[in-house]
Amino acid sequence: MDSKLNLKLRLIVMNFLIFAVWGAYLCSLGIYLGRVGMGAKIGQFFAVQGIISLFMPALMGIVADRWIPAQKLLGLCHLLSALFMAIAGFMGKRYGADIQFGQLFPWYTLAVAFFMPTIALGNSVSYNALTKAGMDTVKDFPPIRVFGTIGFILSMWIVNFTGFKNDHNQLFVSAAWGLLLGIYAFTLPNCPVDRGKKSASLVDAFGLRAFTLFKDSKMCIFFIFSFLLGMCLQVTNGFATPYLDAFGQLPEYANAFAVKNNVFLSSISQVSETLCILLIPFCLKRFGIKKVMLISFVAWFLRFGLLGAGSPTGFGLVLFILSMIVYGVAFDFFNISGSLFVDQNTDPSIRSSAQGVFMMMTNGLGATIGSLCAQAVVNHYTTGKAGVELLSGWTSAWYVFALFALVLAFLFAFLFKYKHEATK
Q1: Nearest CA to 304 among 279, 277, 322, 280?
Q2: How far apart are alpha carbons 148 and 320 in whole angstroms?
Q3: What is the pLDDT of residues 157-180, one digit of tens each?
Q4: Most buried one in 18, 76, 80, 412, CB count within 10 A?
Q5: pLDDT in tens, 89-130
């Protein structure tokens, strides 16, 4: 087999497994929490992913750059994450519908603490291996990353059609994927470490050089808007399926396919994501990062607005499906393109650290504040309501999110100064 093809296949398996771990619970956890009386705590479960991402991806990136090869650290993180996620699942099994916040949340927190750095570590492993093989990361990475989304979708379908979306078993599915990846990661291509000279400064000794990127005004503004866009990331992950589940309170929607299979409907978002990844090489080279991210802002506006206007049947279902389709553009044109932009604008010696900083701003600060703010907005419009009033409250919440994304689009267009060279 051709060596480059073999390398691509190995990276495809890695990306597939990383996102299969996440897809098992990310879009269905809210349903489970709602059914065990923790619906008002959904924001906290998603915010903790952001809090963890404030330091764990950057910290693990430093460790990968300085001491432990990224592929080995990837394996260790997934083995630990699988262990803690399995314990969370056992707690759910033991206590059933009577499980309390303190019995589930700590183990879940430990699991995501070791999972969140692995997205950036996986990117570093991919970029390092592709670069060493003489391949173009902008051209060759997106088709590989597509299979990460396929893994995410497969996990969503498993928990939807088995009914695990409603209970703790989704956590066991995630743990099983994590165990498999934890073993597989040790077979991946080796990533170099740069231990540096003994006389290096403290900044270099602890791998903090990536934070000097904030001195560059272009990169600083890019990271600030990465944080603001990151606020959008977990809104639909945490609240879209509970929103769809709420339609079941009305008799005319209770038996609708979109309500009974809300996680499957949500997976259309990831199918769209899979297809949109393939547009990134063309769009980045043709339009540049500024226009690509502007498209993402507008897509987030449409994503939220269409969710607010939709319903599980008739034309409303069409609007829901359109919202799922546009998510692919919203996510990929920011998350994947942003990661590639950071990789191309940083020195290879701080590659893992720079990816960790990007994750810190998006899935860290952005997701934390976004999740907590989204929970506050949802609670404001839905607490104490039922039936038609409840759904009307949900609609108002989605429109608030849509307005936020639209304002960000105008600010980004004005503040981010970037001249794209299409031939570069």
Answers
A1: 322
A2: 24
A3: 999 999 999 999 999 999 999 999
A4: 18
A5: 999 999 999 999 999 999 999 999 999 899 889 988 998 999
Reduce the secondary structure of 278-292 to three states and give it as a string: CCHHHHHHHHHHHHH
DSSP letter, residue 69: -
Percentages of the chain per state (helix, strand, coil), in multiples of 5: 85, 0, 15
Q: What is the DSSP string of 322-371?
A: HHHHHHHHHHHHHHHHHHHHHHHTS-GGGHHHHHHHHHIIIIIIIHHHHH
Query: In this structure, are residues 382 and 394 in contact, taking their beta carbons and an 8 Å threshold?
Result: yes
Would residue 200 count as lying in a domain? no
Domain containing residue 392: CATH number: 1.20.1250.20
Containing structural domain, residue 336:
3-191+206-415
- Is 197 inside a domain boundary? no
Which residue in the block uniquely carries the two structure tokens 């546009």?
326
SS3 assignment, position 190? coil
Q: At 93, list the tokens.
A: 């099994």
Query: How many separate domains does the chain show?
Result: 1
Question: Does any domain span residue 424?
Answer: no
**313-326 burial code (b ≥16 CB/10 A, e <16):** beebbebbbbbbbb
Q: What CA–CA distance (Å, rounded) separates 339 from 356?
A: 10
CA distance 314 to 268: 17
Structural tokens at position 141: 């990475």
Token pair of 231 as six digits: 């606020």
